[in-house]
Amino acid sequence: MSYLCLENVVKTFNKTEVVKKMNLEIKKGELVSFLGPSGCGKTTTLNMIAGFLDVDGGSIVVDGKPVHLLPPNKREMGMVFQNYALFPHMTVFDNVAYGLKLRKVPKSEINQRVLEALEMVRLSGYEKRYPKELSGGQQQRVSLARALVIKPKVLLLDEPLSNLDAKLRQEMREEIVDIQKKVGITTIFVTHDQEEALAISDRIAVMYEGRIEQVDTPVAIYNHPQTDFVSRFIGEVNQIQGHVVETFSGNQCKVSFDGYHQVLSCPGTKDTLIDFYLRPEKIQIYQEHSEGLRVRVERKMFLGAKTRYILQLKDQQFIADISNTVLNPDQIIEGQDVLAVWNPEELLATKK
Amino acid sequence: MRKVLPKACLNFFCILVYIFLAAPIVVVLLSSLTTTEYIVFPPKGITLRWYAELINHPEFMQSFTLSIMVALGTSVISTIIGTMASIAVVRYEFRGKTAVTQLIGSPLLIPSVVFGVALLQFFSWIGLAASPVALVIGHFILTIPFVMRLVVASLVGFDRSIELAAKNLGAGRLRVFFQITLPVIKSGVIAGAIFAFITSFDDLTVALFIVSTDVVTLPVRIYTYMQYQYDPIITSVSSIMILLTVILMVVIERILGVGKVFSSKN
How far apart are CA A259 and CA B171, in angstroms? Predict the structure, then answer.
């Protein structure tokens, strides 16, 4: 049963479709990220769900009721803005209480719910402060409390962490997930930071040029990208070309990577070239091995827990990230020839 | 240590400027206390006689009330329309926006005398006699550029996402305006209202062209009185005007802080 439904949602600015017939179903209590580069339509979509932008086609259904024709103040959505958007002339208490006052909640209940909300975001005791007296992270927490205190049907987070510094960003994202799970609220999280999306989402909707490229769990998005864009956008990839030397029944074929032969399950025709993507951490290198792709170690970069090796094959470069507990980087000398090996299942077929 | 001398010079210069600014006020205040029949500074003796004398001049009280009413009316109308116009100019794109902005700002460029003549012509053409309404119309045109300057300044850099946040929390358009937008630009709006009030209350040039024998504002009254008599009543009236302004400023300072009002920040 989906709780929030986008059906063929379209948005046009100056005759350009910025959101193209978008369809998405979100279950109750689920945290779904909209992930994509800037200009992919993720914030536009969020604004349409919140009601700040009109939809130019299609419908948005929440809990079985269409909401896309309602004004934003009737939609019961809680939004957290990138720049927090706290009311500067109100105290923290009044900021959080604002939505409850509009709902004519009795005063004693307002008091109790605001204090609970502030406790949830660990800001008890800050009631009388003004927003400008708070740090960025604290302001963001107030903003979260303000959105949640009205018990909205959906929580919308518009790049809520992008104005925070790296360390705080990690803390805050864990806190957001904790609170989201505790409250069990259906949440949409807009971000351009893939690590953030991978870390917190139940599912990720990867968006590109106004379309959803793929909606899947973080693991599936990373390991089984369905489109070229998703392969290239999520994580890092090497692009590698193989030559089909033999085909078997059942979509099996033998592919040669410059003499390194592997049997893969992929559709192919004999004597054609196929492009694959391969993640840097899926490559192992050996000084001696029964088989593998012979490459030269151009450079190595120590990155703490792992080392990044830049591998040269003719005029092409690959990167391989290998944990230092698996391979001691001191054993590899720059300029040396090594064998690069990977599991054929790790090759991601490109979609042409 | 080397910086002591320049700093002393600067302080000295600042004090001179303050004296220069405050001196006329002090002179007026002190000379209103003189016991002589003519204005003299320093005053000879001290008496409140010239204040008591005002009772025999009800026309001053009348003019004073008129001026206050006109200034209040001007201030209210100018602030409301000026604020709405500022929001339109800052937030929306429309045909002739530049023309509108220039037109509204133009009274600042036209000499008040020219403007007064034009108003006189216009009022007699549409058949509007000298009246408080005519004065308010004239002063409205005179003060709207000030109001708009100040309100526009407080709207620039206004983060509109707080309005979206309020809508998102359930506020309709009117609530958003009165509970969110207006309180945030409050300082600019209040500064505009004060400017409008003071400009109108203070105006002589434009009012001269509009007043008639029974509709006379206080500055015009003082001016015409002085043409025939030169006794300390003038200074006592002026002193009362000064004191009123001071009280107004103190009240605003107490409520808001003048610094806040004029810095156009929250």
Answer: 68
Contact B206, B116 (CB under 8 A): yes
Number of independent structural domains in chain B: 1
Residue B249 φ/ψ, nearest 5 degrees:
-65, -40
Q: Pick from B162, B170, B180: which is nearest to A73 by CB?
A: B170
Contacts of B154 in chain A (CB under 8 A): none
Taking CB atoms and an 8 Å limit, are B161 and A77 in contact across chains? no
Find, in chain A, the residue whose alpha carbon is nearest to that of B164: A52
CB contact under 8 A, A86 and B162: yes
Contact A271, A286 (CB under 8 A): no
pLDDT in tens, A131-177: 999 998 899 999 999 999 999 999 999 998 888 888 888 888 899 99
> Which chain B residues contact residue A150 at CB under 8 A?
169-170
How far is the alpha carbon of B250 from chain A, nearest alpha carbon, in Å? 22
Q: What is the CATH number of the domain that holds B241?
A: 1.10.3720.10
Q: Where are the domains of chain A?
A: 2-233, 238-349
Considering only CB atoms, which residues of chain B are within 8 Å of chain A?
159, 161-162, 164-172, 175, 179-180, 183-184, 186, 266
Q: Which CATH number fits domain A2-233: 3.40.190.80, 3.30.310.250, 3.30.428.10, 3.40.50.300?
A: 3.40.50.300
Global pTM? 0.80
- For residues B48 and A203, give the distance between their C-alpha atoms in angstroms, rounded to a whole number: 84
| B173, part of any domain | yes
Give the ipTM of the model, two decimals please.
0.82
CB pairs under 8 A between A and B: 71
CA–CA distance, B125 with B119 (Å, rounded to integer): 10
